[in-house]
Amino acid sequence: MSTLEYFLQVREEKGAGCLALIDPDKVDRAALVDRAVQCSENGVDALLIGSSLLFSSDLDEAVGLVKRAVNIPVVLFPGDADHLSRYADAILFLSLLSGRNPYYLIGAQCRAAPLIKNLEIEPIPTGYLLIASGHSTSAEFMSDTRPIPCEKSSIAMAHALAAEYLGMRLVYLEAGSGARFPVPSDMIRQV
């Protein structure tokens, strides 16, 4: 079963899935594995590994350690085209639809696609919507993106519909690391 099929099965069975994001730059390797195991033991359906900035020189090592420690999918949440690991089960093949920066709409994807194919990582086409969170976040700054206003659910819904029409299988809504406010529940329901 592919990772995407697994996600869809989880949604069918539970109504929603729980994915935890772990930033390999924020913890040492032992803590990274410990967090992954804690997540797995506490009902998390899959792990996302990634960062807006990647200072770690060996993402392969980090993903490999996590993969060996848990029995749930380990999925890359890349901040850029070179944030790849051959040990990942899949990658959220992100297009930052809420922004208008061509690099994050299609440029990074063109750079990463041949590498992903060579590494045989399952790509999951994903529309990425950055939602305003009360202050500037790393994702907003690094992508040079104006986020969707958190009170404008109709704008988020239009972007999600566009993602669906473009053939994307998932939509990821995020307020960003260190957000003051989470993505509003009403917006999530509408999307």
UniProtKB/TrEMBL annotation:
It catalyses: sn-glycerol 1-phosphate + (2E,6E,10E)-geranylgeranyl diphosphate = sn-3-O-(geranylgeranyl)glycerol 1-phosphate + diphosphate. Signal peptide: none annotated. GO terms for biological process: glycerophospholipid metabolic process; phospholipid biosynthetic process. It is an enzyme of class 2 (transferase). SUPFAM superfamilies: FMN-linked oxidoreductases. One of its GO terms (molecular function) is phosphoglycerol geranylgeranyltransferase activity. Keywords: Lipid biosynthesis, Lipid metabolism, Magnesium, Metal-binding, Phospholipid biosynthesis, Phospholipid metabolism, Transferase. One of its GO terms (cellular component) is cytoplasm. Pfam families: PcrB (PF01884). Its EC number is 2.5.1.41. This is phosphoglycerol geranylgeranyltransferase. It comes from marine metagenome. The lineage of its organism: unclassified sequences, metagenomes, ecological metagenomes.
